[in-house]
Amino acid sequence: MRVQLDDKILMKVEKPARYTGGEWNMVVKNPRDVDVRFAFCFPDVYEVGMSHLGMKILYHILNKRSDTYCERVFAPWVDMEKIMRDEGIPLFALETKESVNEFDIVGFTLQYEMSYTNVLNMLDLAGIPKLSAERNKTHPFVIAGGPCACNPEPLADFIDFFAIGEGEEVILEIIDAYKEWKAAGRDRSEFLKKAAEIPGIYVPSLYNISYKEDNTILKIEPVNAGIPEKVRKRIIKDMDRADFPENIIVPFIGTVHDRIMLEMFRGCIRGCRFCQAGFIYRPVREKTPEVLLNQAKGAIEKTGYEEISLVSLSTSDYSCLTNFTQELLKLTEERKINLSLPSLRIDNFTIDLMEKAQKVRKSGLTFAPEAGTQRLRDVINKGITQNDITSSVKIAFEGGWNNVKLYFMMGLPTETEEDIEGIANLAKEVVDVYYNTPRKKRAKGLKVTVSAACLVPKPFTPFQWFGQDTVEEFHNKQMLLKDKLRKASRSIIYNWHDARVSLLEAVFARGDRRVGKVLLRAWQNGCRFDAWNEFFNFDSWMEAFEEEGIDPAFYANRTREFSEVLPWSHLDMGVSQKFLQRECKRAYKGITTPNCRVQCTGCGSSVFGTGICKTDPGKGEEA
Amino acid sequence: MKIRFRFERSEELKYIGHLDVMRLFERAFKRAELPVAHSQGFNPRPHIVFAQPMPLGLSSSGEFADVELEKRYELNIFLEKLNAALPDGIKAVDARESTSNRNIMSIVEAARYRIDFNAMQSSDIDSIISKVLSEKRIIVFKKTKSGEKEFDIRPLIYEITGEANDGTGFFNVLLSSGQHNNVRPELFFEGVRICTGIDIEMTKMHRIMLYGRAENKWLPLTDERFLQRDL
Ligand code: SF4
User: Fold this and answer.
1) Does the N terminus or the C terminus of chain B have fewer Cβ atoms within 10 A?
2) A360 and chain B: CB distance < 8 Å anywhere?
3) For residue A364, what pLDDT band results from cuts at 50, 70 and 90?
4) Ligand 1, from A597, A603, A622: best to mutate by most atoms within 8 Å of Cβ?
5) Is the CB of A424 inside a 6 Å radius of any atom of ligand 1?
6) What is the least distance, in Å, from the CA of B157 to any CA of chain A?
7) How far apart (Å, rounded) are the C-alpha atoms in residues A283 and A279?
8) A231-232 and A260-263: which strand pairing?
């Protein structure tokens, strides 16, 4: 069914172009000419979803196949949802405006836990049963991937299967298997079994979970032989050869990241112990500068974008940064294009680079000390010293920057009041550096923004066992910091996170299958767009927990033993549990671990036989 | 060289605002590899100037813009390159070289619209039109930065014709437009409501053409008289 959208609907909603498609580079195919229709769903509003690089890559890869048509679907904003429900308009895809329940495969990308109710809401709007067990031959398969899929259990009841790890290759294998299954005209369950044979595919209904009396997990086991006991993530071995879209869609309306995103490498050498991305994307795999320059050039020509941004977990760690950025600058200057260089460590070279790249505005500079004292920075393995920070900001102030953002985290293991005070002291130090900068050199009007997030312990990190601070503890620390910062300087602005959101994130990041009921209930209670302040309704969430008889503290605030069977222990992201335990112990002792480039510490990711683990001979799994 | 071009935007692309249209053209010029001259200074901006903002929801067949290019192009080549880089729903239809120094925005003095409507009561279109035209003053409230202001739009309504059938119909109106005394279709409708008391709802608005005035005539902005260097 093709949805009819006219002025009566579109002139009533905010930003109607969220629903109209037709952007430059949108792929147009006749859906009757393909074998497989794929609805790529981003469970948030258009401007957020269209900023996501992973979606652009998979959209491109799927649409390169002549037998497949991949279309985009976003969560309708609340105004549109209301109209859709009132008028009986089902969830539709932007390309053909046809309803999503007519597609073969509906794929969600899971980027953050607080988008989970939107997944349920989108299924509901599509008229697809929310529970996998209730779907039959007439329904699409509902699949999911993305970083949150490394603990997929909270969504196990709703998603038919998950793709673990990087999706570029496995998604094509899914399409092949689907075509074969469709041609053979077999049962729905047959396809699920077939899918489970594809490396990297996890079919939750094919696993039984049993529990102990204390509510922890006793066992996770496949329901029958032939189903893998462990599912290992997929990765792209050779980034240079990985398909990268140059003809990305150029939205008409502004989006969060409205620019070309050039992915330099995957993974991170650092191993900051709170950072999930730093572990689940291992090992580091770089693209060569030649490939990147070609992709940049192609994307500039095919999109007309006025800005290009480097994308990676840590720009400064790119091995050929100097040469590469110099070449890239030539390209962008010639074409009057802005170059944005996020997550760059500030030194004399990079400040010069930034001067050249962003002639226009001296936007804020961002530093992420993450913790207030050296002791605690050692605990989290953030290899950055007070001196690094002060000398960087000195360079920045002398270069005319006057707007500095400092990112911290609260609720880190072993944290004391002293560490919280340390945040204020560090911020004060930065202010002092500014006032010690000669008046002639510095720009007027200092602004130092301190943001302190609440730690959400994540699976596959050394803190995966750690009990999160309670909302109250977070609140006390926030008030303490607020007070200290107020006394430190008037130039400091303090932003803090809603600890109640972090609590929910902690539940769904480390929850098992049983928390799925809470999700469903919260959705029924009206929760959606939980990542948006204006819609976040903590009380409805707490009611949902109560109604389902589930204690959020069990998942969020409880510290686990190493021996506990974790809900994701049947998934293998490369990093070994042994390594994570070792890192956890070192954390508590305040011992840092060198990065992959200095020394391989045997995290387990060398099983993939690629990337940084391979480049230096003598590196390998430590005994 | 400076080129003045006329463009159209169809129904499918009318759901974006003026800033989006501007950005769309900036990117299209980049894709087309038509080198747009940039302003000097701290924040170089491409020299593309639109005659009149296009509000969200308005389709049009008579929009104009000036663009300053760093190189010379044949006008038909210019149109070809630009159109190849424009998305469906927006199209450049005419291009002329301009040697005028006048800001294109200051030329606009009127706009012709076709405005579709639903009337809640059945009423005779001719009597509505003659009622509006017979008024001496039609006072509406216009939002300004400092609150609402009384605004007499009657002298700014230059022509009205229309047709209606069973409660739906359209007006074809020529309204004052431009930097001063701009009467948007919504404001015209407000005026119709006020002086006739009829509950009438606008369903669609389409700009047929933007005009400047010379030699006592309403002329499209690509008319020779607006393209020559001012004396
Ligand atoms: S195996 Fe060694 S080099 Fe490879 S990612 Fe792990 S620690 Fe780094």
Assistant:
1) C
2) yes
3) confident
4) A603
5) no
6) 25
7) 8
8) unpaired
Write down the H helix ranges in A200-320.
277-280, 289-303
pLDDT at A582 over 60: yes
Residues of B in contact with A302 (CB under 8 A): 31
Helix (H, G, I), strand (E, B) or coil at B30: helix
Pairwise CA distance, residues A357 & A307, whole Å: 10
Per the structure, how many domains does chain A have?
1
Residue B10 pLDDT greater than 90, yes or no: yes
The DSSP code for A30 is -
Number of Cα atoms under 13 Å in the Cβ half of residue A19: 28
Kindly give the number of the ligand 1 atom that is closest to the alpha carbon of A612: 3
Shortest CA distance to B48 belongs to which of B97, B2, B111, B110? Answer: B2
Q: What is the pLDDT of residues A524-554, one digit of tens each?
A: 999 999 999 999 999 999 999 999 999 999 9
Q: Which residues of A touch B26 (CB under 8 A)?
A: 304, 306
Residues A375-433 have pLDDT tens digits of 999 999 998 888 989 999 998 898 888 899 999 999 999 999 999 999 999 999 999 99
Q: What are the backbone angles phi and psi of residue B47, rounded to the nearest 5°?
A: -80, 80
CA distance A23 to A479: 47
A575 CB within 6 A, ligand 1: no
The pLDDT of B96-122, averaged and rounded, is 90
How far is it, in rounded angstroms, from Cα B7 to Cα B221?
12
Burial (Cβ within 10 Å: 0-12, 13-18, ≥19) of residue B117: buried
Nearest protein CA to atom 6 of ligand 1, as residue: A603
Amino acid identity for residue B121 in this structure: Q
Query: Is A573 touching ligand 1 by the criterion CB < 6 Å?
Result: no
Q: Which residues pair with A108 in a beta bridge?
A: A41, A144
Question: Tens digit of pLDDT for each residue in B157-214?
Answer: 999 999 988 878 999 999 999 998 899 999 999 999 998 888 888 999 999 999 999 9
Nearest to B44 by CA among B33, B35, B31: B35
Domain annotation for chain B: domains and CATH numbers: 2-98 (3.30.70.580), 110-214 (3.30.70.3190)
**Cβ-contact A387, A424 below 8 angstroms:** no
State whether residue A85 sits within 8 Å of chain B by CB. no
Residue A558, judged by CB atoms within 10 A of its CB (0-12, 13-18, 19+), counts as middle
Structure tokens at A523: 């959705």
A7 reaches B (C-beta below 8 A): yes
- Nearest alpha carbon, ligand 1 atom 8: A596
Q: Is there an atom of ligand 1 within 6 Å of A268 CB?
A: no
Distances in Å between the alpha carbon of A167 and those of A108, A143, A275, A286, B117? Answer: 12, 12, 21, 17, 50
3 state SS of A406: strand
Q: Is the pLDDT of residue A360 over 80?
A: no
Residue A211 structural domain: 7-232
Q: Which helix (H) or strand (E) holds A161?
A: strand A161-163
- Find the A403 Cα to ligand 1 centroid distance in Å: 36
**CB-neighbour burial class of residue A274 (10 A; exposed 0-12, middle 13-18, buried 19+):** buried
Q: Are A259 and A367 in contact (CB under 8 A)?
A: no
The rounded distance, in Å, linking the Cα atoms of A11 and A15 is 9
In this structure, is residue A217 part of a structural domain? Answer: yes
pTM above 0.90, yes or no: yes
CB pairs under 8 A between A and B: 60
The two three-digit tokens of residue B215, written as one number: 């030699």
Give the mean model confidence (pLDDT) for residues B26-55: 91
CATH number of A38's domain: 3.40.50.280
A432 lies in a domain? no
Q: How far apart are CA B63 and CA A618, in angstroms?
A: 68
Burial of A148 (0-12, 13-18, 19+ CB in 10 A): buried
Residue type, A593: T
